[in-house]
Amino acid sequence: MSEAEVRSAFQNQVGYCLANGAPVTAAVVGGVLAGLDGPGEFLRRIREWWGAPLADALPLRAAGGMHALVQRGEAPALEPLYRGEPEAMAQADALVAEAIAAHDAALLPWLDGPPQTNEAGRSANYVAAMLWLAAKGLPPRWDCLEIGSSAGINLMIDRYRYRLGGVEVGPAESPMLLEPEWRGSPPPAVPAGWGFAGLRGCDVEPIDLTDPKRLARLRAYVWPEATQRFQRLEAAARLASERAPLLVKADAADFVEAELARPQAEGTTRVLMHSIVWQYVPAASQARVTAAMEAAGAAATPERPLAWIMLEANRNNFRHELVVRHWPGDGAPHLLGTAHAHGAWVEWAGR
Questions:
Q1: Distances in Å between the alpha carbon of 284 and those of 100, 215, 256?
Q2: Distance (Å, rounded) from C-alpha 26 to C-alpha 17?
């Protein structure tokens, strides 16, 4: 890829962060962009990026590394910037350049893999989509498959409490309450028989929430503006220590094909779900997942239906769109709404 494409990716990410209420992260990403011609191996690798910089989330790889420095107390000069102090925000480009120059070697490994921004708040979108599917007549007994599960936080969807536009679902005693600002009409009511028959997921590099080092890496990818996300991450880690989510290391397409071949119990709805991961799935694997889902959808019955829930970024409008397909039926995409990247709000359009 050209350096122009790298710069465009960073500019795009700045706009995306600002559109999602993350001015500090936007300033950090903008600071890397402003100093991109600077010395050092970290900046050289970014300038000469070999892949697709936006799809590879290159700006967020860099931002994760910067945030890790702050969280470890290794870059005290950056701390006012990460607190959003006006004077530091005005000097963001210089502060970021100084940190990169001082920590070039420590930042390099953060470019080696994509960010894993596992976020419990996205489970609210999954649940809202399931309520919509149940209102369409699909059995509300969910056999869930998730790709790009990272640490499996959204595989604990059954252990969280939700308040969605006045509709409440989930265990009342849960330490995790997800209550996004709800815009629009409420989702359908919770149907009789609601529950989860299975929750399994995969990731190419699963994270063990009970491993302090891996948990610290997840914290680094949390945008500093999102204080509630840190609280949710800690709550999820506690729940995982009580009972780990069922998560395997696997390619997304391999996982989906194998799981769809597994017998499905009558009276359950099998669901493929994913959030902010599709851009990281190689095109060949995307095609295999789509083909497998459409083939399985063609064989679905009212007693054993299939659904596909997607919460993914639209880079043209900087919005996350909640889209659902289901079978039997036309299998066409239904746009149920848009949502904040990290669960702060849901703008519901489901009908």
A1: 36, 31, 14
A2: 5
Rg (CA), the chain: 21
Look at the alpha carbons of 335, 336, 338, 342 in this order and tell me if their dihedral is positive or negative: negative
Q: Peptide bond before 191: cis, by omega within 30 degrees of 0? A: no
130: number of CA atoms within 13 Å, CB side? 31
Instruction: Check residue 186 and report its DSSP letter.
Output: P
| Global confidence as pTM | 0.81
Contact 131, 309 (CB under 8 A): no
Closest of 146, 116, 117, 153 to residue 129, by C-alpha = 146
Distance CA 251, CA 277 (A): 12
User: How crowded is residue 112: how many other Cβ atoms within 10 Å of its Cβ?
Assistant: 8
Question: Could you report the per-residue pLDDT of 189-243, keeping only the tens digit for each?
Answer: 999 999 999 999 999 989 899 999 988 988 999 899 877 888 899 999 999 999 9
Distance separating alpha carbons of residues 172 and 176, to the nearest angstrom: 10
Cβ atoms of residues 317 and 338 within 8 Å: no
Query: What are the DSSP E strand ranges found in the chain?
Result: 141-146, 161-164, 167-169, 177-178, 181-183, 195-203, 247-249, 269-275, 306-314, 319-327, 334-339, 345-348
For the chain, give the longest Cα–Cα distance.
62
Q: How far is it, in rounded angstroms, from Cα 85 to Cα 275?
A: 32
10 Å Cβ neighbour count for 190?
18
**pLDDT digits 0-9 by tens, 248-271:** 999 999 999 999 999 999 999 999
* Residue 175, helix vs strand vs coil: coil
| Distance in angstroms (rounded) separating the CA atoms of residues 325 and 22 | 31
Q: Judge whether 138 and 131 are in contact, CB under 8 Å.
A: no
CA 88 to chain centre: 29
